[in-house]
Amino acid sequence: MEQSVHHIPFVSRTALRFSSPLQGTRLFDPGLLSHEEKCALDGAITLKEPIKPHSYLAREEQRVDALHIVTDGWAFRYATTKEGRRQISALLLPGDIANLDSLMFDELDYGIRTITETTIVSLPKERALALARHPGIARTFTWLGLVDNAILSRWALSLGRKSAIERFAHLLCELSVRLGVGDGNDSCFAFPLTQEVLGDALGLTTIHVNRTMQQLRSEGLIATDNRTIILPNLVRLREVGGFDPHYLHAASRERALQAVWGIR
Amino acid sequence: MEQSVHHIPFVSRTALRFSSPLQGTRLFDPGLLSHEEKCALDGAITLKEPIKPHSYLAREEQRVDALHIVTDGWAFRYATTKEGRRQISALLLPGDIANLDSLMFDELDYGIRTITETTIVSLPKERALALARHPGIARTFTWLGLVDNAILSRWALSLGRKSAIERFAHLLCELSVRLGVGDGNDSCFAFPLTQEVLGDALGLTTIHVNRTMQQLRSEGLIATDNRTIILPNLVRLREVGGFDPHYLHAASRERALQAVWGIR
DNA sequence: CGGGAGCTTGAGGGAAGTCAACCGGGGTGG
DNA sequence: CCACCCCGGTTGACTTCCCTCAAGCTCCCG
Asked: Which residues of B touch A100 (CB under 8 A)?
């Protein structure tokens, strides 16, 4: 996280005056924050010890008094039926806020678990609410909540109306965009999801996930190797999944990055 | 919706000084708004002509430059697959904002249709953003977005991990709470959803919705009569649906109502 | 070397989908 | 004013996608 200034091209010096664990996360991404607001945010957070893989960041019904922002690693939100069937409602990637709703609600109505080792920074609820008096920060929270919502709406479309292979393809397309791996074919990224976790995200059994993966492999749409996934034909994968990246509103994110850094 | 002042006990007269179409809607509910903020909101909205049943309030991909708040009637948000399979991602009841995300995004990534005749008020995006400088209004928007999110997460659990009858039961429980019909058994409310719309909300075919309704009827969990539904055994219905009202955060709404009106 | 986590395979079953009718009622146009 | 039509609901027969159950396999790690 300690990043040295000389790795970054000479632009926009003032914006670089500090180096925050939040640098480059989605919290800063939408481009809604002034330099002052970024500093204020940065001053309010505390960096936590890394959290082990497969451990609980929070349990269902738990009282949580701080926002947790993932800065590294993968995690997920989930809910379970009384019989113990689990549905993942969000995959949390670096930059995501794990529990934005804690801003307004006292108790979680879901649980949070890590997938890989995960580092988070936390922002006490009270300070977050105070910071939300900065219009840019308030708008950033709102923006993040709305994107969460857009993603979840697509998941609902997948869960309710798509076949296993379509759901899987759609999820992979979503992840490739959210992770910011290039649009070109032959996308490739670390993929720490077990088939069990995939099943719980896609509303399928692990066994059916396995068979669906085989189908995708045999059609040349994915290749996996040691927790890495390759998408050799993103165009066709998007067709299969019925994926249109528009809903992720990554464009505004790109635009913001460009405006702030003059790069990328 | 036509509420006359003399139905309301003599309390908190100042809070009643104006009568807004927003009165009693979820926009005012969380209790986050000062009297001044309510006035500001009220001054920014315009009441629209009632919209016919089964008509489009907005299409997918459409540019929308105002928030639309449902004040009467039922509507829904939906998305479709390329083959035309439709999934409803939200049922919009009086008080709901149909397109909160228009606050931040230019184009919808869903469509909005009415179910019954619907009246809406609209709030131009620019004015909404300006109003969001009031902390209470900003927090109200955030609150509404977060509740939307909580509801959608439960829908994902239903769609991914519950049987037809469980999904149906859960939806009915959710609606009974959101509509504010009493907790007691023998809840009863107008129910304008066709089996087709229900199917699109629950991720089922109309035919299977029909059979599921028959099952619920035969088990004495619902009774229908001319677009009205009766839930004769809400306790068992909640058991069947695995429903816990906590996630709707209606409590804070009740608390707010109590604080403002001293009633209910 | 044993054990567990994650992956793979096969056989059989079941919940929900598909296809194809039919019904009943309310609106409408001839 | 009646006939017609269309929408929404209902029913039956058949299909299918995905689930369940039950193993066995392959790593990796202690």
From this structure: 146
The strand pairing partners of A187, in sequence order, are A231
Strand C-proximal residues of A, range 31-60, CB below 7 A, are 54
Each residue's pLDDT tens digit, A193-213? 999 999 999 999 999 999 999
The answer to whether A50 faces chain B, any CB pair under 8 Å, is no
Report yes or no: B213 and B168 within 8 Å, Cβ to Cβ.
yes
Query: Does the CB of B204 sit below 7 A from strand C?
Result: yes
Contact in structure between B111 and B59 (CB atoms under 8 Å): yes
Residues of A in contact with B242 (CB under 8 A): 81-82
Residue B10: count of CB within 10 angstroms of its CB: 9
Nucleotide nearest to B193 (CA to C1'): D8
- Please say if the pLDDT value at position B135 is more than 90: no
Alpha carbon distance B89, B82 (integer Å): 16
pLDDT digits (tens, 9 = 90+) for A125-176: 999 999 988 888 888 899 999 999 999 999 999 999 999 999 999 999 999 9
Strand D at less than 7 A from CB of B233: no
Q: How far apart are CA B205 and CA B195, in angstroms?
A: 9
For residue A28, count CB atoms less than 10 angstroms from its CB and return exposed for 0-12, middle for 13-18, buried for 19 or more: buried
Contact at CB, A139 and B132, closer than 8 angstroms:
yes
Within 7 A of a protein CB, which nucleotides of strand D?
7-13, 17-22
Does the beta-carbon distance from B156 to A159 stay under 8 Å? yes
Q: What is the pLDDT of residues B9-54, one digit of tens each?
A: 333 333 334 466 666 666 666 667 778 878 878 877 888 889 999 9
| Structure-block tokens of residue B205 | 């075919």
Query: Which residues of A fall within a CB distance of 8 Å from B162?
Result: 81, 85
Distance from CA of B9 to the nearest CA of A (A): 30
pLDDT tens profile A63-109 = 999 999 999 999 999 999 999 999 999 999 999 999 999 999 999 99
User: Two tokens at B40?
Assistant: 């500001």
C-beta separation of B53 from B116 below 8 A: yes
**Is the minimum distance from the CB of B214 to strand D below 7 Å?**
yes
Closest CA to B149 of A101, A252, A242: A101
> In chain B, helix, strand, coil percent, each to 5?
45, 20, 40
DSSP states of A124-183 as a string?
Answer: EHHHHHHHTTSHHHHHHHHHHHHHHHHHHHHHHHHHHH--HHHHHHHHHHHHHHHTT--S
Cα gap A18→A219, rounded to integer Å: 48
What is the 8-class DSSP label of residue B186?
A: S
